[in-house]
Amino acid sequence: MFKRPRKPKELAEQPEIPEGRWIKCPACKHLLYRGQLERTLWVCPFCGLHFRIPAETYARILLDEEPPPEKTDFSLVSADPLGFPEYREKLARAQKRTGLRDAAMVYAGHLEGLPVVLFTTDFRVLAGSMGSVVGEVFVRAARRAIHERKPFLALTASGGGARMQEGILALMQMAKTTVAVRELDEAGIPYINILTDPTMGGVMASFASLGDILIAEPGALLGFAGPRVIQQTIRQKLPRGFQRAEFLLEHGMVDLVVPRHRLKATLKNLLELVWEGG
């Protein structure tokens, strides 16, 4: 059994990974050496907090180095259909900071020798929110998995949910990605969700919760509206750990809670059980 990690009270308390050599854990406040965190896959050795990490870091953790995985974002760039104030500027800053065109990335590679297609969202780009590009990238990745007869993995860190700056076009991606999940099912392609902190809003309410198997990282915040919004709406105190991965596991909303160091081995075992190579 893994140790249940302590988590910050508020979503905003966990910063993006800084560049310095020493990093303070936002949960237990221990000062951690960056090299030590890299060896523990960005999991605090004192309290078990799973730091938010970029999509490419997850790809390195999950996919084999040989043969090298193929990375693509389909060269799609978000437009500004509503002329939303400062949307272009915020997206441009995120693109410059991360080197990504948008919040979604796809990798075709191998996991312990098993060929897979891995779709990821990256919290660093507008909180990993889903606009028209993220939805389209998901659909293209799913259809690639169908065409190549490979299991499809979707790893999400999408605290922004559906991207409000794109209005109804972002909300349409919920239906669009759901249709792609149905296509995976009809084609008999295994679809596994890996839910990381945070996966919220329209992402959680669409493709992120529709997998054949739902795996969550320890302590991940998962749900539609956040706990603070829900508590203010219903005017009742919420149970301890509400909307955290362990709470959802106890209530049958996810299938497994798996610490990061065991994630690759767990996926390998599951894929060997459900997939015989098409």
Profile the largest sheet.
7 strands, mixed
Trace the largest sheet across and list its strands: 3-4-5-6-7-8-9
Low-confidence stretches: 1-12
Q: Give the CATH superfamily of the largest domain.
A: 2-enoyl-CoA Hydratase, Chain A, domain 1
Strand/helix succession: EEHHEHEEHEHEHEHHEH
Task: Note the beta-strand portion.
Answer: 5-15%
How many β-strand runs?
9
> What is Rg?
18 Å
- Mean pLDDT across residues: 91
Structural class by secondary-structure content: alpha/beta
Query: Helix fraction?
Result: 25-40%
User: In CATH terms, what is the fold-level topology of the largest domain?
Assistant: 2-enoyl-CoA Hydratase, Chain A, domain 1
Number of domains in the coordinates? 2
Present the secondary structure layout.
Elements: E1 22-24, E2 31-33, H1 34-39, H2 55-62, E3 70-72, H3 87-98, E4 104-111, E5 114-121, H4 132-148, E6 152-156, H5 167-187, E7 191-195, H6 201-204, E8 213-216, H7 227-234, H8 245-250, E9 256-257, H9 260-274
Parallel strand pairs: 5-6, 6-7, 7-8, 8-9
Antiparallel strand pairs: 1-2, 3-4, 4-5
Helix pairs in contact: 4-5
Q: How would you portray this structure in words?
A:
This protein folds into 2 domains: 51 residues, no CATH class; 222 residues, Alpha-Beta Complex (2-enoyl-CoA Hydratase, Chain A, domain 1). The chain is α/β, with parallel strands linked by helices. The chain has 9 helices and 9 strands. The longest helix is centred in the middle third of the chain and has 21 residues. It has a 7-stranded mixed sheet with strand order 3-4-5-6-7-8-9, with helices on both faces. Helix 4 packs parallel to helix 5.
